[in-house]
Amino acid sequence: MSATAKFPQNTLTFSHGVHPEEFKELSNQCKIQRMPFVDEYTLPLGQHIGAPSKALVVKGQKVKRGEKIADAAGFVSVALHSPVDGVVSEIGIFDTPKGDVLPGIKIKTDPYSTQRTVETPVDFESLDAKGFISAVQNAGIVGLGGAAFPSHVKFSIPEGKNCKYIMLNGCECEPFLTADHRTMVEYPEAIIDGILILNRFLKAEKAYIAIEANKPDAIEILSNLVAKNSFPIEVVPLKVKYPQGAEKMMISAILGKEVPSGKLPLDLEVLVCNVGTIKAISEYFRKGLPLIERIVTVTGTALKKPANVLVPIGTPMRAVIELCGGITDDAARILLGGPMMGAVQKSLDVPVVKGTSGILVLGQNEVRDFEEYSCIRCGRCVDACPLFLNPTMMGLLAKKGLWDEMLEYNVMDCFECASCSYVCPSGIPLVQSFRVAKGILREKAMREKLKST
Amino acid sequence: MSDLSRKLMVSTAPFLKDRETTPGIMFTVVYTLIPIVLVSYYFFGLSAFLISLTAVISCVFTEWLFNKSEAPFKTLKDGSALITGLLLALTLPPGFPLWMVFIGGVVAIGMGKAMWGGLGQNVFNPALLGRAFLQAAFPTAITTWSPPDGMYFSLRGTNAAFPLFQGVNVDGATGATPLAKMKFDHVSTDIMDLLIGSTGGSLGETCAILIILAGIYLLFKKIINWRIPLSIILSVSLFSGVFYLINPEIYPSPVFMILSGGMLLGTVYMATDLVTSPLTPKGTWIFGIGIGILIVLIRNWGGLPEGVMYAILLMNAATPLINRFTKIRTYGHER
After folding, report:
1. In which domain, by residue range, is A445 found?
2. Which of A34, A72, B187, B272 pairs as cysteine with B224 (C-beta 3.0–4.6 A)?
């Protein structure tokens, strides 16, 4: 391809990491299509990190598409909006994609509504930084990369800190996922516009858009577009390697600096934001559309018609999968998110939430269960860990339940990218055991804190 | 849909997995050992065949015996006992009594591996530990070298010795190894002979070319850590080269050092043992350099002509310590 040849092969990257098979070709050429409206939507109140939103509606109440149905409960929390014109049919407890049950709101779609909204731009020119932050919170915008961390919290720069660089994350290093890729190809103007709006309030010196080199079309389109701008935005092609899209890895690749342990990118004067999130910001301020829909990659080797779909938040996963032709007999696992860090689902009756970047149906062939052998200390995990942890030693300690000793090996720094488990030839569940260890250690620290106070 | 939910399994990420498996790694090592074993049949005939067969049977049997209560066949599947058997055979002289070979295999797996808790837990390389035991128990038998005769069906009388007996060397043909000639007579052996392997020595100590090729293949497949062979060979060449330059009459040349004895077999297959070598890059350099220096020290000034075995075992013992002192700096942490 000519587009690939334009970019140097020795693109920037971080040290270590792994190269899983990409599977992006399943859906990376599929245009984003709109999900038709369904009869009923389930909206859990706790779709984001932080306090669950407070419901503002009662059963039987009529709501409009884009109307606020729940308010933020505190600073680290966001508002929630109705994805359709309809009636609140139930306020109760529902299954969520994380595997737990949470309070939520069910909305029955009004079958006679056109579901059309009037575009009403939000006047951001007159807003100050504080007003901008509460506007973002009110729009219900969270990080759309998968973590669903409230964006306005990220945008509130604490006293004494400075944001010099805005870094847009378009790496999308998880295999299979192509939602960010398609967003960059189909909504490049909205992305640039979002950066400019954000920068009115952050006043950064420069913005970067980091894209893995396996998306040459996105790199080309955005490169052409940023050239026309007066604000310096640089499109940076990064090497195709997992986990290139982890913010620490991305910052290291571009700036050559490490984010100190336990600190935020802001300590390096960097603010990282997903490309989908920035598009949501642009759409809110230009069209007045809060976060009521998101782009989801629906893909997998056991799915009949992989696609990228613009899905209203709260749509049942079953409806999305049916739109994509349904699953084949080969299906073995259904996940929300990518295959390296996603969450497995036990049924199709959970809704798409704000943090759902992909719906993935894996076949028997990908999820073959490997027999577990003894650790042969081959060190492949040591050479894979992007944080330079020692998964070999931590794995041996975890097996013996020596959690405190694992602390000395900096287990709390692990961000669970799963590179170690991916490479382990003995099929040892390394990252899985680190997750357990982190949970136990966190609980222990909390207990000790309680005791001392 | 109930049919579907029965089929869907709940487990945690990641769901993709690299295709390399531990048995895969082990059997690749076994495949690279096969040509080396075959060439020993060519040089030493039926004796070589019987020794390697006995060693493999005894190692696999011991492995089964120790795991029989829990997982009788699981640990056999990983192929590590097979490697230990083949490597042990390659370190033995062609006329070695078979009953001693069998004991060597039992000790290698039993004391070298099972006793520590099985694969991955041992501190010493099992094959070398077995050989060290044999060296201590049967010092005469293990230093009686009969030269290669190129007869495919030749069987040495001592091979068939009854248990608890040494056996009599009927044809009386013994020959000194290149290392012994060097040590005691200061006579070097032709490099070509060393490369092809038409010299006296243990089964796998003779054909240098094949071991080098196998090593290159294993490096290419990233099964062995390149730092270990490189650091051993560099430190041996440097250290022995200095003494060779001082007095070439007494001290062997670096090329002779590298091509003779168990040096290559140890470098490619034993020092690089994944289990018993350090984990961190810095640690592997220390490990390799340590082995190199010990080999030269033992060969030039020790009582024995060969020092590879003890050099590796000593550094094996130091490995846990090396691991402790060469922690890697975690991302975002101060050194």
Report:
1. 380-452
2. B272
* Residue A357 DSSP class: -
A94, part of any domain:
no
pTM metric for this prediction: 0.89
Q: Is B7 on the interface with A (CB under 8 A)?
A: yes
Q: Quick check: is A425 in a domain?
A: yes
Element (H, E) at A138: helix A129-138
pLDDT in tens, A342-355: 888 888 889 999 99
In whole angstroms, how large is the CA radius of gyration of chain B? 21
Question: Considering A255, A287, A319, which residue would you say is the last residue of a domain?
Answer: A287
Domain assignment of residue A219, yes or no:
yes
Among chain B residues, CA nearest to A340: B14
Pairing status of strand A101-109 against strand A358-363: unpaired
Report how far residue A332's alpha carbon sits from residue B3's, in angstroms, rounded to the nearest whole number.
12
With respect to residue A228, please indicate whether it lies within any of the assigned structural domains: yes
- In angstroms, the CA A323 to CA A178 distance is 17
How many domains, chain A? Answer: 2
Q: Do B330 and A346 touch (CB under 8 A)?
A: no
* Pair (A283, A165) in one structural domain: yes
CB-CB under 8 Å, B78 with A374: yes
Tens-place pLDDT, residues B243-268: 999 988 888 888 888 888 888 999 99
Same structural domain, A256 and A400: no
Residue ending a domain, among A287, A302, A330, is A287
Contacts (Cβ under 8 Å, ≥6 apart) of A236? A12, A208, A209, A210, A211, A253, A254
How near does any CA of chain B get to the CA of A95, in Å? 15
CB atoms within 10 A of CB B187: 11
SS3 for A371-410 is CCCCCCCCCHHHHHCCCCCCHHHHHHHHHCCCHHHHHHCC
Query: What ipTM goes with this model?
Result: 0.86
B11 contacts A376? CB cut-off 8 A? no
How close, in Å, is residue A327 to chain B by CA atoms?
Answer: 10
**Token code pair at residue A338:** 């990518």
Average pLDDT over residues A29-52: 92
The β-bridge relationship of strands A86-95 and A101-109 is antiparallel
Q: CATH number, domain at A176? A: 3.40.50.11540
Contact at CB, B14 and A341, closer than 8 angstroms:
yes
Minimal-distance CA residue of chain B relative to A175? B16
